[in-house]
Amino acid sequence: MVTGRRGDWCAHVVEQHQSGINFVLLIISYILYLVIGAAIFSAIELPYERELRKELKGARLDFLSNNTCVSDAHLEELLARALAASNYGVSVLGNDTNKNWDFVSSLFFTSTVLTTTGYGHSVPLSDGGKAFCIFYSLVGIPATLFFLSAIVERLMDLLSRNPISHFHRRWAMSRPKLAIIHAASLSIIMALLFLFIPAWIFMAMEKDWNFLESLYFCFISLTTIGLGDYVPGETQNKEDNPHPHMYRLAITVYLLVGLVCVLVVLETCYELPQLKLLRRRFYKENVRELDSEATNIISHDQLSDQLPNPEDHMTNQLPVISSVSQQADTLHQNGTSGPYTPASGTTVNENLS
User: Fold this and answer.
1) Looking at the keywords, is Ubl conjugation present (predicted)?
2) 119, 137, 289, 340: most buried, per Cβ within 10 A?
3) What does the pLDDT look like over 172-188, one tens digit per residue?
Protein backbone atom coordinates (compact mmCIF):
# COMPACT_ATOMS: atom_id res chain seq x y z
CA MET A 1 0.00 0.00 0.00
CA VAL A 2 2.83 2.37 0.96
CA THR A 3 4.78 1.36 -2.14
CA GLY A 4 1.80 2.14 -4.36
CA ARG A 5 1.40 5.59 -2.81
CA ARG A 6 5.09 6.33 -3.26
CA GLY A 7 4.89 5.27 -6.89
CA ASP A 8 1.88 7.51 -7.48
CA TRP A 9 3.61 10.39 -5.71
CA CYS A 10 6.78 9.96 -7.82
CA ALA A 11 4.73 9.78 -11.01
CA HIS A 12 2.87 12.94 -10.01
CA VAL A 13 6.13 14.79 -9.25
CA VAL A 14 7.64 13.69 -12.57
CA GLU A 15 4.54 14.78 -14.47
CA GLN A 16 4.52 18.13 -12.67
CA HIS A 17 8.18 18.87 -13.48
CA GLN A 18 8.41 17.12 -16.84
CA SER A 19 9.70 20.20 -18.71
CA GLY A 20 12.42 20.82 -16.09
CA ILE A 21 13.52 17.19 -16.24
CA ASN A 22 13.65 17.34 -20.03
CA PHE A 23 15.72 20.52 -19.85
CA VAL A 24 18.24 18.94 -17.46
CA LEU A 25 18.50 15.92 -19.74
CA LEU A 26 19.10 18.29 -22.67
CA ILE A 27 22.00 19.97 -20.81
CA ILE A 28 23.53 16.61 -19.89
CA SER A 29 23.19 15.38 -23.48
CA TYR A 30 24.88 18.51 -24.84
CA ILE A 31 27.78 18.23 -22.37
CA LEU A 32 28.14 14.56 -23.27
CA TYR A 33 28.20 15.52 -26.97
CA LEU A 34 31.02 17.99 -26.26
CA VAL A 35 33.01 15.40 -24.32
CA ILE A 36 32.57 12.75 -27.02
CA GLY A 37 33.63 15.23 -29.72
CA ALA A 38 36.72 16.24 -27.73
CA ALA A 39 37.68 12.60 -27.22
CA ILE A 40 37.30 11.79 -30.91
CA PHE A 41 39.27 14.85 -32.05
CA SER A 42 42.02 14.08 -29.56
CA ALA A 43 42.24 10.46 -30.71
CA ILE A 44 42.43 11.50 -34.39
CA GLU A 45 44.66 14.58 -34.23
CA LEU A 46 47.08 13.86 -31.39
CA PRO A 47 49.17 11.30 -33.35
CA TYR A 48 49.53 13.77 -36.25
CA GLU A 49 50.61 16.51 -33.84
CA ARG A 50 53.26 14.28 -32.30
CA GLU A 51 54.56 13.29 -35.72
CA LEU A 52 54.74 16.92 -36.83
CA ARG A 53 56.60 17.97 -33.67
CA LYS A 54 59.07 15.15 -34.26
CA GLU A 55 59.64 16.22 -37.88
CA LEU A 56 60.17 19.87 -36.90
CA LYS A 57 62.60 18.95 -34.17
CA GLY A 58 64.59 16.79 -36.59
CA ALA A 59 64.60 19.55 -39.23
CA ARG A 60 65.91 22.03 -36.67
CA LEU A 61 68.72 19.73 -35.57
CA ASP A 62 69.66 19.08 -39.21
CA PHE A 63 69.79 22.83 -39.93
CA LEU A 64 72.01 23.50 -36.92
CA SER A 65 74.35 20.64 -37.81
CA ASN A 66 74.66 21.84 -41.43
CA ASN A 67 75.09 25.49 -40.43
CA THR A 68 77.49 25.53 -37.55
CA CYS A 69 77.91 29.30 -37.75
CA VAL A 70 74.29 29.75 -36.58
CA SER A 71 73.75 29.28 -32.87
CA ASP A 72 70.67 27.70 -31.36
CA ALA A 73 69.77 30.95 -29.56
CA HIS A 74 69.88 33.03 -32.75
CA LEU A 75 67.77 30.48 -34.61
CA GLU A 76 65.27 30.47 -31.73
CA GLU A 77 65.01 34.26 -31.91
CA LEU A 78 64.50 34.25 -35.68
CA LEU A 79 61.79 31.60 -35.51
CA ALA A 80 60.00 33.45 -32.70
CA ARG A 81 59.89 36.67 -34.72
CA ALA A 82 58.76 34.83 -37.84
CA LEU A 83 55.94 33.09 -35.96
CA ALA A 84 54.86 36.34 -34.30
CA ALA A 85 54.70 38.06 -37.68
CA SER A 86 52.80 35.12 -39.12
CA ASN A 87 50.20 35.43 -36.37
CA TYR A 88 49.57 38.99 -37.62
CA GLY A 89 49.17 37.80 -41.21
CA VAL A 90 52.70 38.77 -42.35
CA SER A 91 54.76 35.94 -43.74
CA VAL A 92 58.49 35.91 -44.42
CA LEU A 93 57.75 33.88 -47.54
CA GLY A 94 56.97 36.28 -50.38
CA ASN A 95 55.67 39.07 -48.15
CA ASP A 96 56.59 41.66 -50.80
CA THR A 97 53.84 40.46 -53.15
CA ASN A 98 51.07 39.53 -50.67
CA LYS A 99 49.48 42.60 -49.10
CA ASN A 100 46.88 42.18 -46.40
CA TRP A 101 45.68 45.77 -46.15
CA ASP A 102 44.94 47.01 -49.63
CA PHE A 103 41.31 48.02 -50.21
CA VAL A 104 39.98 44.66 -51.45
CA SER A 105 41.78 42.73 -48.70
CA SER A 106 40.43 45.19 -46.14
CA LEU A 107 36.93 44.69 -47.55
CA PHE A 108 37.38 40.94 -47.17
CA PHE A 109 38.54 41.52 -43.58
CA THR A 110 35.52 43.68 -42.70
CA SER A 111 33.13 41.07 -44.10
CA THR A 112 34.70 38.34 -41.96
CA VAL A 113 34.55 40.58 -38.89
CA LEU A 114 30.93 41.68 -39.29
CA THR A 115 29.73 38.14 -40.04
CA THR A 116 31.80 36.85 -37.06
CA THR A 117 33.63 34.41 -39.33
CA GLY A 118 37.06 35.75 -38.36
CA TYR A 119 39.67 33.65 -40.17
CA GLY A 120 42.49 35.24 -38.18
CA HIS A 121 44.87 35.28 -41.14
CA SER A 122 45.07 39.08 -41.01
CA VAL A 123 44.57 41.19 -37.89
CA PRO A 124 45.08 44.86 -37.03
CA LEU A 125 48.74 45.62 -36.39
CA SER A 126 48.50 49.07 -34.81
CA ASP A 127 46.81 50.20 -31.60
CA GLY A 128 44.62 52.57 -33.61
CA GLY A 129 43.49 49.70 -35.82
CA LYS A 130 42.65 47.54 -32.81
CA ALA A 131 40.65 50.34 -31.16
CA PHE A 132 38.75 51.08 -34.36
CA CYS A 133 38.04 47.35 -34.81
CA ILE A 134 36.34 47.27 -31.38
CA PHE A 135 34.17 50.29 -32.14
CA TYR A 136 33.45 49.14 -35.70
CA SER A 137 32.37 45.69 -34.49
CA LEU A 138 30.17 47.03 -31.68
CA VAL A 139 28.14 48.97 -34.23
CA GLY A 140 28.56 46.70 -37.24
CA ILE A 141 27.77 43.26 -35.82
CA PRO A 142 24.26 44.18 -34.52
CA ALA A 143 23.62 46.08 -37.76
CA THR A 144 24.72 43.02 -39.75
CA LEU A 145 22.43 40.75 -37.74
CA PHE A 146 19.53 43.12 -38.35
CA PHE A 147 20.39 43.33 -42.05
CA LEU A 148 20.63 39.55 -42.42
CA SER A 149 17.40 38.96 -40.48
CA ALA A 150 15.53 41.38 -42.75
CA ILE A 151 16.82 39.66 -45.89
CA VAL A 152 16.14 36.18 -44.51
CA GLU A 153 12.59 37.13 -43.53
CA ARG A 154 11.85 38.30 -47.07
CA LEU A 155 13.42 35.21 -48.60
CA MET A 156 11.48 32.96 -46.23
CA ASP A 157 8.21 34.16 -47.74
CA LEU A 158 9.56 33.67 -51.25
CA LEU A 159 11.37 30.35 -50.82
CA SER A 160 9.58 28.59 -47.97
CA ARG A 161 6.24 29.85 -46.72
CA ASN A 162 4.59 30.70 -50.06
CA PRO A 163 5.66 27.46 -51.81
CA ILE A 164 4.44 25.36 -48.88
CA SER A 165 1.06 27.15 -48.86
CA HIS A 166 0.76 26.84 -52.65
CA PHE A 167 1.43 23.11 -52.78
CA HIS A 168 -0.70 22.54 -49.69
CA ARG A 169 -3.71 24.05 -51.46
CA ARG A 170 -2.94 22.41 -54.80
CA TRP A 171 -2.06 18.89 -53.68
CA ALA A 172 -4.14 18.75 -50.46
CA MET A 173 -1.11 17.29 -48.67
CA SER A 174 -0.70 17.66 -44.93
CA ARG A 175 1.34 20.74 -44.07
CA PRO A 176 3.83 19.02 -41.67
CA LYS A 177 4.70 16.36 -44.26
CA LEU A 178 4.99 18.95 -47.00
CA ALA A 179 7.21 21.12 -44.79
CA ILE A 180 9.67 18.24 -44.25
CA ILE A 181 9.84 17.49 -47.98
CA HIS A 182 10.37 21.16 -48.77
CA ALA A 183 13.10 21.58 -46.11
CA ALA A 184 14.95 18.50 -47.38
CA SER A 185 14.73 19.65 -51.00
CA LEU A 186 15.86 23.17 -50.14
CA SER A 187 18.81 21.83 -48.13
CA ILE A 188 19.97 19.64 -51.02
CA ILE A 189 19.72 22.50 -53.54
CA MET A 190 21.61 24.93 -51.28
CA ALA A 191 24.28 22.32 -50.56
CA LEU A 192 24.85 21.83 -54.28
CA LEU A 193 24.91 25.55 -55.08
CA PHE A 194 26.99 26.80 -52.15
CA LEU A 195 29.05 23.81 -50.99
CA PHE A 196 29.82 21.22 -53.66
CA ILE A 197 30.00 23.42 -56.77
CA PRO A 198 32.12 26.13 -55.05
CA ALA A 199 34.34 23.39 -53.61
CA TRP A 200 34.99 22.15 -57.13
CA ILE A 201 35.80 25.72 -58.24
CA PHE A 202 38.19 26.28 -55.32
CA MET A 203 39.90 22.98 -56.07
CA ALA A 204 40.55 24.22 -59.60
CA MET A 205 41.72 27.67 -58.46
CA GLU A 206 43.84 26.65 -55.46
CA LYS A 207 46.60 24.32 -56.65
CA ASP A 208 47.38 22.99 -53.17
CA TRP A 209 43.80 22.11 -52.25
CA ASN A 210 42.03 18.85 -52.94
CA PHE A 211 38.25 18.49 -53.01
CA LEU A 212 37.94 17.62 -49.32
CA GLU A 213 39.98 20.65 -48.29
CA SER A 214 37.91 22.90 -50.56
CA LEU A 215 34.65 21.48 -49.22
CA TYR A 216 36.02 21.89 -45.70
CA PHE A 217 36.77 25.58 -46.35
CA CYS A 218 33.29 26.23 -47.77
CA PHE A 219 31.55 24.58 -44.84
CA ILE A 220 33.74 26.22 -42.17
CA SER A 221 33.22 29.62 -43.80
CA LEU A 222 29.46 29.50 -44.41
CA THR A 223 28.80 28.27 -40.88
CA THR A 224 30.92 31.23 -39.60
CA ILE A 225 33.31 28.91 -37.78
CA GLY A 226 36.25 30.44 -39.63
CA LEU A 227 39.23 28.51 -38.30
CA GLY A 228 41.59 30.28 -40.70
CA ASP A 229 43.70 27.23 -41.56
CA TYR A 230 42.56 27.53 -45.20
CA VAL A 231 42.24 30.98 -46.77
CA PRO A 232 41.91 31.26 -50.57
CA GLY A 233 44.42 33.35 -52.46
CA GLU A 234 47.17 33.16 -49.85
CA THR A 235 49.49 30.79 -51.73
CA GLN A 236 48.85 31.92 -55.29
CA ASN A 237 51.25 33.81 -57.50
CA LYS A 238 50.47 36.14 -60.39
CA GLU A 239 50.96 33.40 -62.95
CA ASP A 240 48.25 31.23 -61.40
CA ASN A 241 45.89 34.12 -60.70
CA PRO A 242 46.46 37.27 -62.77
CA HIS A 243 43.53 39.08 -61.09
CA PRO A 244 43.89 38.52 -57.32
CA HIS A 245 41.70 41.49 -56.36
CA MET A 246 38.76 40.29 -58.45
CA TYR A 247 39.24 36.81 -57.02
CA ARG A 248 39.16 38.10 -53.44
CA LEU A 249 36.12 40.29 -54.20
CA ALA A 250 34.26 37.31 -55.69
CA ILE A 251 35.02 35.29 -52.55
CA THR A 252 33.61 38.10 -50.40
CA VAL A 253 30.35 38.13 -52.38
CA TYR A 254 30.17 34.32 -52.23
CA LEU A 255 30.56 34.30 -48.45
CA LEU A 256 27.85 36.92 -47.90
CA VAL A 257 25.32 35.36 -50.28
CA GLY A 258 26.11 31.87 -49.03
CA LEU A 259 25.63 32.93 -45.42
CA VAL A 260 22.18 34.33 -46.25
CA CYS A 261 21.18 31.07 -47.94
CA VAL A 262 22.43 29.00 -45.00
CA LEU A 263 20.34 31.14 -42.66
CA VAL A 264 17.29 30.60 -44.88
CA VAL A 265 17.76 26.83 -44.68
CA LEU A 266 18.22 26.95 -40.90
CA GLU A 267 15.12 29.13 -40.47
CA THR A 268 13.12 26.77 -42.69
CA CYS A 269 14.14 23.81 -40.54
CA TYR A 270 13.46 25.83 -37.39
CA GLU A 271 9.85 26.44 -38.47
CA LEU A 272 9.11 22.76 -39.01
CA PRO A 273 6.03 21.74 -36.97
CA GLN A 274 7.87 18.67 -35.69
CA LEU A 275 10.68 20.82 -34.26
CA LYS A 276 8.17 23.21 -32.71
CA LEU A 277 6.52 20.26 -30.97
CA LEU A 278 9.93 19.01 -29.80
CA ARG A 279 10.90 22.43 -28.41
CA ARG A 280 7.75 22.57 -26.31
CA ARG A 281 9.00 19.63 -24.29
CA PHE A 282 11.69 21.88 -22.82
CA TYR A 283 9.50 24.91 -22.04
CA LYS A 284 8.30 25.86 -18.60
CA GLU A 285 4.76 24.87 -17.74
CA ASN A 286 3.37 28.43 -17.82
CA VAL A 287 5.00 29.01 -21.22
CA ARG A 288 3.55 25.79 -22.57
CA GLU A 289 0.08 26.66 -21.23
CA LEU A 290 0.30 30.14 -22.72
CA ASP A 291 1.41 28.72 -26.06
CA SER A 292 -1.47 26.22 -26.00
CA GLU A 293 -4.00 28.92 -25.13
CA ALA A 294 -2.66 31.17 -27.91
CA THR A 295 -2.94 28.29 -30.38
CA ASN A 296 -6.54 27.61 -29.33
CA ILE A 297 -7.45 31.29 -29.62
CA ILE A 298 -5.97 31.51 -33.11
CA SER A 299 -7.76 28.34 -34.20
CA HIS A 300 -11.05 29.63 -32.76
CA ASP A 301 -10.65 32.96 -34.56
CA GLN A 302 -9.94 31.24 -37.84
CA LEU A 303 -12.98 28.98 -37.38
CA SER A 304 -15.14 31.98 -36.52
CA ASP A 305 -14.07 33.74 -39.71
CA GLN A 306 -15.02 30.73 -41.80
CA LEU A 307 -18.48 30.11 -40.19
CA PRO A 308 -21.43 32.46 -40.82
CA ASN A 309 -22.43 34.81 -38.03
CA PRO A 310 -25.64 33.51 -36.33
CA GLU A 311 -26.68 37.05 -35.37
CA ASP A 312 -26.69 38.07 -39.03
CA HIS A 313 -28.77 35.00 -39.82
CA MET A 314 -31.34 35.84 -37.14
CA THR A 315 -31.48 39.44 -38.31
CA ASN A 316 -32.32 38.31 -41.83
CA GLN A 317 -35.01 35.88 -40.63
CA LEU A 318 -36.83 37.89 -37.93
CA PRO A 319 -39.30 40.61 -38.98
CA VAL A 320 -38.45 44.19 -38.34
CA ILE A 321 -40.62 45.58 -35.50
CA SER A 322 -41.73 49.08 -36.34
CA SER A 323 -42.02 51.79 -33.75
CA VAL A 324 -45.34 53.22 -32.45
CA SER A 325 -44.74 56.55 -34.20
CA GLN A 326 -44.30 54.80 -37.55
CA GLN A 327 -47.60 52.93 -37.13
CA ALA A 328 -49.39 56.17 -36.10
CA ASP A 329 -48.16 57.94 -39.21
CA THR A 330 -49.36 55.05 -41.33
CA LEU A 331 -52.84 55.07 -39.77
CA HIS A 332 -53.10 58.85 -40.18
CA GLN A 333 -52.28 58.58 -43.87
CA ASN A 334 -54.90 55.85 -44.39
CA GLY A 335 -57.50 57.84 -42.44
CA THR A 336 -58.44 54.92 -40.22
CA SER A 337 -58.19 54.32 -36.55
CA GLY A 338 -58.21 51.18 -34.54
CA PRO A 339 -56.46 49.35 -31.79
CA TYR A 340 -52.71 49.17 -31.84
CA THR A 341 -51.32 46.04 -33.45
CA PRO A 342 -47.64 45.42 -34.21
CA ALA A 343 -47.03 45.47 -37.91
CA SER A 344 -44.58 43.25 -39.72
CA GLY A 345 -41.55 44.62 -41.42
CA THR A 346 -42.96 43.75 -44.83
CA THR A 347 -46.12 45.74 -44.31
CA VAL A 348 -44.29 48.79 -43.07
CA ASN A 349 -41.91 48.70 -46.00
CA GLU A 350 -44.78 48.46 -48.46
CA ASN A 351 -46.58 51.43 -46.89
CA LEU A 352 -43.46 53.55 -46.82
CA SER A 353 -42.75 52.80 -50.44
Assistant:
1) yes
2) 119
3) 888 889 999 999 999 99
